[in-house]
Amino acid sequence: MTRTISFNLNGAPVKADAAHETRLVDLLRNNFGLTGIKEGCGEGECGACMILLNGFPALSCIMAAGAVEGQQVTTIEGLRSSPGFDILAQAFNDAGAVQCGYCTPGMIVIAYALLRDDPAPDEQTIRSAMAGNLCRCTGYAMIVEAVTLAAKRRGEAW
Fold it and tell me: In the predicted model, is pLDDT for residue 25 greater than 90?
């Protein structure tokens, strides 16, 4: 049995039909073609499926699609037009924080939310924020460096 879900996706109202068991990650990827969202584990352990739900980080692989009825969902694709996104993306590139790229969208979503709420996080704050996002390539040092660099460059962008 399916139902129609209405929500705001990346700043625009949308509707989609989804079965009760449909996960949000699947709805976003399959119905809307938003492939920046990755599924690494399907259990909410890796952070590759990170989105912003009403402005707060959330794991889309463990969320039922119906849970976003009437809510605001922002994906990495939606952040691309947000103030400060270019600074953050460039910092990830400059710091070498992009290796294989699989975890990068989830990392950037978390980093964006962190920098929006804390313009000058220290290393421990950055590491704590990133704790739910697994990266097998960088060892996190370059990711911390990228977030620190973006914080220094951000000025009034956010």
Answer: yes
Q: What is the residue type of 70?
A: G
Average pLDDT across the chain, whole number: 94
Q: 2-75 has which CATH code?
A: 3.10.20.30
Return d(Cα 60, Cα 82) in angstroms, integer. Answer: 20
CATH superfamily of the domain spanning 85-153: [2Fe-2S]-binding domain (1.10.150.120)
pTM for the predicted model, two decimal places: 0.94
Residue 128: count other Cβ atoms within 10 Å of its Cβ.
12
Confidence of residue 158 (pLDDT cuts 50, 70, 90): low
Are residues 88 and 148 in contact, defined by beta-carbon separation less than 8 angstroms? no
